[in-house]
Amino acid sequence: MIDIQQVKPSIFSLEYLTLEAWLKDNKEPKFRAGQIFDWLYKKRVTSFEDMTNLSKDLRDKLSNDFNLTTLKTLTKQESKDGTIKFLFELQDGYSIETVVMRHEYGNSVCVTTQVGCRIGCTFCASTLGGLKRNLEAGEIVAQVLEAQRALDGVNERVSSVVVMGIGEPFDNYDPLVSFLKTINSEKGLNIGARHITVSTSGIIPKIYDFANEKLQINFAISLHAPTTEIRTSLMPINKAYTLENLMDAVRYYIDKTGRRITFEYGLFGGVNDQAEHAELLAKLIKGIKCHVNLIPVNDVVERNFVRTPREQIFKFEKILKANGVNVTIRREQGHDIDAACGQLRAKERKEETRG
After folding, report:
1. Active site residue 97
2. Domain that holds residue 60
3. Fewest Cβ atoms nearer than 10 Å: which of 109, 177, 273, 309?
4. Domains: count for the chain
5. Considering 20, 97, 139, 317, which one is annotated as catalytic?
6. Is there a binding annotation on residue 277?
């Protein structure tokens, strides 16, 4: 592996105002920032030399100080339903996953924020081998750009982004926020805030920070359990950040932003999917401005959870609805490929995912 500290920072890690400041420091007019962003995000060039309306001197300065991050495609899987899953190699040799999901309302890209994960959820392949390193903002941005390049060939565009890939986004907080601002910027990828969703397993201090950012971005909590005991067995993070305190942070977020949140609830056969669990969940979230997204769990060969039967999923949904909960069952996509988060990396890059 190459030491990531030896690699120049990605040009995609620079927010617009930061790029203007860099130009000023390099005695260049700040209007050049608009031209550079146009080359990066509208024309999507892969070389500084392609930025032909910039002077050679400025192109050389950019090349000396920054890397125009490109991701090497190691594996590309395409599902019958149109889902595309990429395994990308980073410049230091590590790999990450990115998924393009097609919906009636547009194309959504699920991005990764870390190489591996240290949260240790017992149902997730992403945590196999632990955390290797955080991604810089530009490496997250580059995933959306690569997805867009894949869609360019069929005259389609990325219409929404979900930050639910490998890693815990709030464990890489500052690069995450920088990434969000860049893809939301009119000068960047211009993806509307309400078409961007960030999910966390529940790093409570960062939930308060995120509320105070005053971003109009959709926010989701990976809940997966209605009680402390069950959540701790599924998600060790619950030992550090308890369910009770998590609910307090959720209420703060809603009060501060006025926005509804989504609770992601994976259904695991015989663990958290019975009628009594549905009743407990309804009680836990009563009075909270929220939506529950029920997720029939994907099989992951490295884990031993049993898939909840179809009829039980609908029964669980019916109980929540009877309790006044706004609930949907997530549409499954990419079922004929390695759809579960971290699954493709675990299969193809075993050296990275061993403990």
Report:
1. yes
2. 4-65
3. 309
4. 2
5. 97
6. no
